[in-house]
């Protein structure tokens, strides 16, 4: 009989990431019919000596929230949990991985398709990849495949990232490695390509002649509660800016790819990254919120920024002179991620538009996905007054009843389909680290210190001053 099976292996199955993101995403895919039970088996692997049932109960707890009172929901959770098998073992010895391989093989028929999702700290990536390669990939046949999905942080700077890439690269081909940046799975991030290259409106305006500055902003209204230990080792630049915000920058700034093939898109992203000029110290403001070090897992004298504004400048024909302001912070006044493209003032203005504010195109990634254009219109009425108004595309209103998929759901589906478009390629990762490594080294050495700010505020006032200066400076240029 014709058959084929897909084995999804979640390594680090008892950990936080698996519980909060991976299993819920798998469940959503299952519920929508993307993981047919006749073909799919899910394996959890971790060191914890727990039973199958214990793991399932944990996952059930996350999948069934108090608001889910529908009996059908709990029934589908139960059916989903039946797909899961748990195998316990260590991350650096063959024994556990042989057990895992046996378990997978038992359920496999036809071509062997195996997806290994590493919901693990990067320190164990090399040994886990080695074990997977050695013990769990021998059955690969012509129709089958093995793929590795890894999460950030991929290293701490260019050197460590390259080392990690080289170690994994010795074992698996780049086409088998899926580096997740979950921002690439967000609806409005994926929309950027379409927006830019399918609309005549934007193409002629999208350059230094018309755009004054681009701001890519991430705010959270909570601190590092519960993950201070992890965070303190990385800081906001490694946690958010070097990956999530920089990926968004690439999509805003890149040239049109020759096609939608993943390699064509990633080639263009790499070119943007390689065109970014070295960051100037005076174009950086760091902050740390008051109370950050009271977390027992954070050292009292920590120099780690929980806030940063960094200006990047792209040295190419399209963007020379346009500041890209990347700003991210924890414990700020709101939770929001958005892109603001600010246009230059109208030349020879006869309406005093400047007083009202300039044209701006805002793409809100979250919450409440939306795009809106701020523009000047005549104030309705008898006078010839002007006012700033908005052309507003709010997803909630425009796409009522459409559920926007979670980033992880979409990205896992891509890994199953073998589509690397929304994943970070090795050279892209390296180029991204090269932008930030010199700055990070200065911060790590204590030569650049974060400015304290109040939780619930906008962050240090110096960041707003930097922004005003950068964008005003730019205006003065001919
Ligand atoms: C993660 C960071 O990558 O992204 C977290 O490690 C951050 O610190 C999270 O909270 C934000 O993701 P989202 O999708 O909630 O914006």
Give a quick precis of the structure.
It catalyses: D-glucose 6-phosphate + NADP(+) = 6-phospho-D-glucono-1,5-lactone + NADPH + H(+). The protein has 478 residues and is an alpha/beta fold.
Task: Name the features.
single chain, 478 residues, alpha/beta, 9-stranded mixed β-sheet, 6-stranded parallel β-sheet, 14 helices, 15 strands, 21% strand, globular, disordered C terminus, binds 6-O-phosphono-beta-D-glucopyranose, carbohydrate metabolism
What share of residues is helical? 25-40%
Question: What is the H-and-E element order?
Answer: EHEHHEHEHEHEHEHHEEEEHEEEHHHEH
Count the beta strands.
Answer: 15
| Rg calculated over all Cα atoms | 24 Å
Task: Assess the beta-strand content as a share of residues.
Answer: 15-25%
Q: State the end-to-end CA separation.
A: 72 Å
Average pLDDT, to the nearest integer? 93
Explained architecture:
- The chain is an alpha/beta fold and 478 residues long.
- The chain has 14 helices and 15 strands.
- The strands form two sheets. A nine-stranded mixed β-sheet has the order 14-13-12-11-7-10-9-8-15, with helices on both faces.
- The relative contact order is 0.13.
- Mean pLDDT is 93; it is low at 474-478.
- The protein binds 6-O-phosphono-beta-D-glucopyranose.
- 6-O-phosphono-beta-D-glucopyranose binds next to loops.
- 6-O-phosphono-beta-D-glucopyranose is lined by residues 220, 239, 337.
